[in-house]
């Protein structure tokens, strides 16, 4: 018997590509490139060539490669703002109209422009921050907090959102496994949270707070759950290597796959593709429209595959393993990864793709590593690393802002909200008494839920809504005393 109780608390070919690589090697003798980086460069050339060969049509659409770079903020000279009205006007234009501040070099006055991808160059203006405008669209620059003078920041700081330091509700989750390599919660786009407790899977409706038992395995244990992108399909991985596909609306099993020889610890969907990673070191790709169990099995990791995430455009797949490796796979080829990264010093479970910058990937290492690293997955380059001081269990980009959420294990058991520009901490949330192993986000992006070995699920308001709506929600939840058998 397991109970879930609701509580409250406060045109070039491969040869030309290799030729270009040789030029790089000859022109930079003082910075030798490792064999792994050479292989990544060659794989990048192969991938570009295959993409060109696969493009058949009557139109030529050029590929624009964005320049990835890490920018460091520099303080701008303070501007004399006569009154708070000017600061409020600036805040309104920046937050509501999505305009960015620039300073005219002639008279030193401030003006705003729309933030577009393409703009005409104006030699008479320059950005407040002394940064090359060409690099302004850096993947790690948060435009909402970008380069405000100190006097403006003093006004602006009064209106920055306040993040509650305590969860607004807690669900008791008995028998929630304390295993770093599993993925036992996920939040669907239809606002339903799936939770795996030992051999059972429960569905919690976030609108009605109704809890439903989806399945109860007899001689097996659930090791992973994952929702499809749009439909009500839920993938359930088990300790015996089975992968079950369930229709959450009809509460019935659609299909069972028996392709893995060991437990299935991670699942992810991409359109009609269902990918799974297992302790048997393999990654299996399935097309839900086909009758076959799978159409490709990849074995590149030397130990258990514990992290698996598709990019938002479903073209790149990132996989992390207990062998400390991070691999990037292309949807056009599954025989071998296009990029291999071995910089992490511990298991790579935490993987997240940015929804704001194409090709930006974040990964986190385990206890012996404790770092978050950013990668340009289009070119196979590491951009930045940040030492967090504790085991990185999960990573997730915010849907609202250019921010990153991380959960941690040994030894601080905390949730951290980072501003991607410079990796500055916005908030640190502490509540769990054990490793924060599981993380999911609501479909609207306002709320996250975390699970830990202390057998609790805690809901945090990262982007608080209006006070009236939040209070009404709490009043409705207070009427429910939920228990599941």
TrEMBL record:
An individual GO BP term: anaphase-promoting complex-dependent catabolic process
Xref: PROSITE patterns: WD_REPEATS_2, WD_REPEATS_REGION
Sorted UniProt keywords: Cell cycle, Repeat, WD repeat
WD repeats: 298-330, 341-385, 429-462
The keyword Cell cycle appears for this protein: yes
Pfam families: WD40_CDC20-Fz
CDD domains: WD40
GO molecular function, one term: anaphase-promoting complex binding
Gene Ontology CC annotations of this record: anaphase-promoting complex
Domain CDC20/Fizzy WD40: 171-460
Record keyword Transmembrane helix present: no
Protein name from the UniProt record: CDC20/Fizzy WD40 domain-containing protein
Lineage of producing organism: Eukaryota, Sar, Alveolata, Ciliophora, Intramacronucleata
């Amino acid at each position: 018997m397991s109970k879930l109780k609701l509580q409250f608390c406060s045109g070039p070919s491969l040869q030309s590509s290799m030729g270009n690589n040789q030029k790089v090697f000859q022109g930079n003798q003082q910075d030798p490139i490792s064999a792994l980086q050479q292989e990544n460069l060659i794989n990048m050339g192969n991938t570009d060539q295959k993409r060109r060969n696969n493009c058949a049509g009557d139109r030529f659409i050029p590929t624009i490669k964005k320049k990835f770079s890490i920018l460091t903020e520099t303080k701008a000279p303070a501007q004399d703002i006569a009154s708070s009205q000017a600061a409020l006007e600036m805040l309104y234009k920046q937050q509501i109209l999505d305009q960015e501040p620039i300073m005219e070099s002639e008279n030193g006055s401030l003006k705003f422009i729309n933030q577009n991808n393409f703009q005409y160059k104006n030699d008479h203006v320059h950005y407040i921050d002394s940064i090359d405008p060409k690099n302004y669209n850096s993947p790690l620059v948060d435009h909402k907090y970008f380069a405000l003078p100190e006097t403006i920041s003093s006004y602006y700081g009064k209106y920055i959102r306040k993040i509650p330091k305590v969860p607004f509700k807690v669900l008791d989750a008995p028998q929630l496994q304390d295993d770093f390599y599993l993925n036992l919660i996920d939040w669907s786009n239809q606002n339903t949270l799936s939770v795996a407790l030992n051999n059972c899977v429960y569905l919690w409706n976030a609108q009605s707070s109704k809890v439903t038992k989806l399945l109860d395995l007899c001689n097996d244990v659930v090791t992973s759950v994952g929702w499809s992108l749009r439909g009500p399909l839920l993938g359930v991985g088990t300790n015996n290597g089975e992968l079950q596909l369930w229709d959450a609306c009809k509460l019935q099993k659609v299909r069972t796959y028996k392709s893995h020889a060991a437990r299935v610890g991670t699942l992810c969907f991409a359109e009609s593709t269902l990918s799974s990673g297992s302790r048997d070191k393999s990654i299996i790709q399935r097309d839900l429209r086909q009758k076959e169990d799978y159409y490709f099995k990849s074995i590149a990791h030397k130990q258990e595959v514990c992290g698996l995430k598709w990019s938002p455009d479903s073209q790149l797949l990132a996989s992390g393993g207990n062998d400390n490796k991070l691999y990037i796979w292309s949807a056009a080829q599954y025989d071998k990864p296009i990029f291999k990264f071995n910089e992490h010093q511990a298991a790579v479970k935490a993987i997240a793709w940015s929804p704001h910058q194409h090709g930006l990937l974040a990964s986190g290492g385990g206890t012996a590593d404790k770092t978050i690293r950013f990668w340009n997955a289009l070119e196979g380059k590491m951009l930045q690393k940040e030492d967090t001081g504790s085991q990185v269990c999960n990573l997730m980009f915010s849907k609202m802002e250019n921010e990153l959420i991380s959960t941690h294990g040994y030894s601080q058991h905390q949730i951290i909200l980072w501003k991607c520009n410079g990796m500055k901490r916005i908030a640190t949330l502490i509540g769990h008494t054990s490793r924060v192993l599981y993380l999911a986000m609501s479909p609207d992006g306002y709320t996250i839920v975390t699970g830990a070995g202390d057998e609790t699920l805690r809901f945090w308001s990262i982007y608080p809504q209006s006070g009236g709506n939040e209070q009404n929600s709490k009043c409705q939840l207070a009427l429910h005393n939920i228990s599941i058998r």
